[in-house]
Amino acid sequence: MQWSLQTLMTKSSKEVGRKISVQPVIASMYEEEFKRDMLSLKVIPPAVYLRVTENVPQIVAFIDRIIKNGHAYATQEGDVYFDIKSIGERYGKFGGAADSQPEPGSHKRDARDFALWKKSKAGEPYWESPWGRGRPGWHIECSTIASTVFGSQLDIHSGGIDLAFPHHENEIAQSEAYHQCAQWANYFLHSGHLHLKGSVEKMSKSLKNYITIKDFLKSYSANEFRMFCLLTKYRSAIDYSDGSMLEARSSLESISSFIHDTQAYMKGQLQCAPVQEAFLWERLAEAKSSVLKALAEDFDTARAVSAVMSLVHHGNRQLQPVSKSGEGARSPAVFAAIVSYIRDVLDVFGIELLHTREANGSSHSGSMEGVVEQLARFRSQVRAFALARHESATKPGLYPERIPLLTACDTLRNDLAPLGVILKDRGATSTWEITGRPQNQRVQDKDQESST
């Protein structure tokens, strides 16, 4: 079994618990595969894994206390139902069903009453209980396990929008009945569904309209998936398509390229006109304020990313290279502050954007970078020789016999791009970057243009 992207966004402990209670051996296999998929997406593991099958005695005790508190009742058939009327108007925070009579043949007192314990049918798994052999209801296991770990109150409870009712509604009712408290969870965060673009249905195994995480990672990275999610507010549905993934990739590449350029500037490898330092300090302060406000307003990550991209845009406008170095003062401090802030924001979002030596993942990355460094240095020397101009006033411009050297330099730069090695010419010097991803777009041959 493979976990889909939609599963990642909406999977609940309720669903996982049902699978584990059916076949422990098979469920363990699925669980391990799920963990591997989460690690491949760089999802931080939880502090503890708790299985429903290992907590049935606690569930039975939880139900028994709800009965003793006057909020549930057992039937002669061996079922236990939560008594909705016992909590009055408190039921229905997420749009519960209206008060109505139970269907003929039902043993419920009210149609809204839900099962805490169900008598097992022939061939179903069962556990012993004061009400006979049975199994937990679909909602009680989550309240029991959460209470075992966190006690009588949660700060934040999350899940897919489809779990708001009845699952979360019933969790609230039974948890507050058990703990005898006025409010069990302070905040509920309900995430939107993942859709294939053009489809009104969410990604679902039953509809066979999903993509597995393993297949996804053949084309895109975990960082790109995170950026894809960040570009839409968590409560909204997300349309998955190659176009939306390429947009996420483009955003990451823009940030990566900017950081690479700032590093070149701070090392003195990038010559540009005097920087409007005060203007950039203002834009940095503005970005910090905008990101904070966006995240404080119901985790609006789309607005937060937009603020970061605006900062990148203003920074890029100040880093336009010039052919000759000027005598003006340089401003590395403001760019260092901008890069540091962008790193911090990306770290909060779990994105490891920068292609560091460690991130390349290859045991030969150090030697590869050494080869690229020597190659870029040699190319820079050849290019500088080819760009030398006639000192004689009678023959202005480049030496014609050296133009093929410029052509060879441009060809090398363009041939390395599909291999994930990016060479950037900074006036008389050049910088390089190993992106780890092929670059199909050819770089404009500026050296050859300047020679014509």
UniProtKB/TrEMBL annotation:
GO biological process: cysteinyl-tRNA aminoacylation
Protein's UniProt keywords contain Transmembrane helix: no
Coiled coil: none
Compartmental location: Mitochondrion
Pfam family, one: DALR_2
Gene3D superfamilies named among the record's database cross-references: Cysteine-tRNA ligase, C-terminal anti-codon recognition domain, HUPs
Limits of the tRNA synthetases class I catalytic domain: 25-249
Top-level taxon of origin: Eukaryota
GO cellular component, one term: mitochondrion
Reactions it catalyzes: S-sulfanyl-L-cysteine + tRNA(Cys) + ATP = (S)-sulfanyl-L-cysteinyl-tRNA(Cys) + AMP + diphosphate; 2 L-cysteine = S-sulfanyl-L-cysteine + L-alanine; S-disulfanyl-L-cysteine + tRNA(Cys) + ATP = (S)-disulfanyl-L-cysteinyl-tRNA(Cys) + AMP + diphosphate; tRNA(Cys) + L-cysteine + ATP = L-cysteinyl-tRNA(Cys) + AMP + diphosphate
GO terms of molecular function: ATP binding; cysteine-tRNA ligase activity; metal ion binding
Keywords: ATP-binding, Ligase, Metal-binding, Mitochondrion, Nucleotide-binding, Zinc
The Cysteinyl-tRNA synthetase class Ia DALR domain, residue ranges: 293-353
Cofactor dependence: Zn(2+)
Sequence similarity: Belongs to the class-I aminoacyl-tRNA synthetase family.
Function: In addition to its role as an aminoacyl-tRNA synthetase, has also cysteine persulfide synthase activity. Produces reactive persulfide species such as cysteine persulfide (CysSSH) from substrate cysteine and mediate direct incorporation of CysSSH into proteins during translations, resulting in protein persulfides and polysulfides. CysSSHs behave as potent antioxidants and cellular protectants. Mitochondrial cysteine-specific aminoacyl-tRNA synthetase that catalyzes the ATP-dependent ligation of cysteine to tRNA(Cys).
Annotated protein name in UniProt: Probable cysteine--tRNA ligase, mitochondrial
Native source organism of the sequence: Takifugu bimaculatus
